[in-house]
Amino acid sequence: MSIRITCIKKDNGYHENPHVAISELGWVEDGTNETGRSTRIRIYDWIKNEGGVAYVTDSIGDKAYVTTAISASGTKYVKTIADNTTADNLLKLPECR
Q1: 26 lies in a domain?
Q2: How much of the chain is helix, strand and coil, in % rounded to 5?
Q3: Which of 32, 61, 69, 87 is the most buried (most CB within 10 A)?
Q4: Domain count of the fold of the chain
């Protein structure tokens, strides 16, 4: 199963990096078009431990896949795999409503 991340929700306040500020991610499941929202930690665990595949698309439909990472202070988070742009595709998504 794979999901397309469609939006992000960020916590307020200071964070060591912008990815850690993400608290929830909205998504659409490929094939079923089921939608939902999950915490950053749930998406991290799903990708890392359950073999889940997540991605974002840009305005022309190109995919950037989401991977897991851990900050220097041990915080688990997700980010997109570097592509041809310096901007992070995940952080460019709109805020979930």
Answers
A1: yes
A2: 10, 40, 45
A3: 69
A4: 1
